Amino acid sequence: MTAVRAPGAPGAPIISDGRLVSTSPATGAEVGRLPVAAGDDVTRAVARAREAAGWWAGLGFTGRRERLLRWRGVLARRIEELAELMHAEGGKPVPDAIVEVLTAIEHIDWAARNAGRVLRPRRVRSRLILAEFTGHLEYQPYGVVGVIGPWNYPVFTPVGSAAYALAAGNTVVLKPSEYTPVVGQWLVDSLAEVVPEQPVLTAVHGLGDVGAALCRSGVDKLAFTGSTATAKKVMAACAETLTPVLLEAGGKDAMIVDSDADLDAAAEACVWGGLTNAGQTCIGIERVYAVEPVFDAFVGKVVERAGRLTVGADGADIGPITMPGQLDVIRRHIDDALARGGRAVLGGADAVQPPYVRPTILVDVPEDSLAVREETFGPTLTINRVRDAEEAVTRANALPYGLGGSVFGRRRAVAIARRLRSGMAAVNSTLTFAGMSTLPFGGVGESGFGRIHGEDGLREFGRPKAVTRRRARSLLPAMTFERTPADVARLVKVTKLLYGRRR
Ligand code: NDP
Fold first, then answer.
1. Angle, to 10 degrees, between the axis of helix 228-239 and the axis of helix 208-215?
2. 248 lines ligand 1 (CB under 6 A)
3. Which one is catalytic: 89, 100, 178, 248?
4. Beta-carbon contacts of residue 348 (< 8 Å; ≥ 6 apart)
């Protein structure tokens, strides 16, 4: 999804006197203002982060673990304050914000506790061919990691990269979304409370051009979370200097409801997975495929639950759409689905009432319609009937996106989940893989590549460093000009003996 701006609408960022003014999408009230990074500000921030990187790496895994656990403690103790700020700035209901911060806290905790185990130097076994050597492997920090984050999960997404990068020994320069800079700055300030010595996490604020400047600033790695369109620009900019990138991009996740699914559990998870955070979730369920025998009963249960949800600013289940320009996208997707013969069994043509969108459930929507093919990012779901699970998998896998997914069922559910062309899948739940810090998070295809979270997420922020060390004289000298013809003959013999078998 590309950032669509509607200047003047509540929530649309404004730049005034060199400051980025952040406002509430519900009321338009100012939430805070921060200096826009101008001129060389981004390169200066990266230079400061580079100075800090040596000190931070020098703390070692134990020192960093202690600091990061203290940061985790600050977030846990001030969770209500941060959730209220997220609500004010992005419109997210406070309970959703609490869940988001809790998930981020869990990731900080796991990354801090496990970085040493996963990344520190270890001996690696050699094989017969180089038996006289030992191998040593470690994952060394890149140095400075640039993190670019979106607005929809302004704590979970930057922390998912930053906590793992920091635990691995890097310092981080964060470019928060222009829609949620105040939350981004809160994260930076809270870490500075427990790491006052050096700027190990700093923020640069502004619009997309500041993100583009960060890509070209000389960072050693760039971790991007945002839309597929911007991910391509980020990769192109980073290609100029061969800066490695990690891209967490958009999605159009599918849920499959099989014939032996618990329909109440499936409906509950579907409504949550599709409509939480007003549907503005990268791994949110956007399309559902339910098999024919359970289709009607399932749709009825979804409509009943989604119809109960409240919409509004404070205390409601569904808050405002954070990015005003997205309202047009959501309206267009609903109109297109209806024009092509889809039916609204809840909400529909008049669901968009800025800055809110009422829950909308669309059924029998043609597979080539916008609501099935493109990220809607609103509290809408398409539910289509399929003959069987096989057809559901084919349809689920038909899009270029491949982020997450969900399967409800008993007998075949795990096998179906394994066949989804996606980086993640949840069986008999939705979105849960995001909170499991031991599992990697990321997509395939147009949803990006690289992984945050888990052991893979830690390794993403360390360069593998391989060292071989001689222990004894070579019995089979190969890598030397001093080998003799007899040595080469022995090499041929050994090669055939070791690897020449037919199977
Ligand atoms: P955008 O791609 O519009 O923006 C993401 C970030 O990139 C923002 O900080 C933005 O700054 C910045 N940016 C914009 N232009 C450039 C540029 N040319 N170079 C570098 N950075 C730039 O995404 P949204 O903020 O709208 O976020 C929603 C999208 O993020 C959805 O597609 C969603 O699926 C995806 N997402 C993916 C996740 C994942 O883990 N895979 C998780 C969460 C969201 P600014 O805001 O100032 O324009």
1. 40
2. yes
3. 248
4. 334, 338, 360, 362
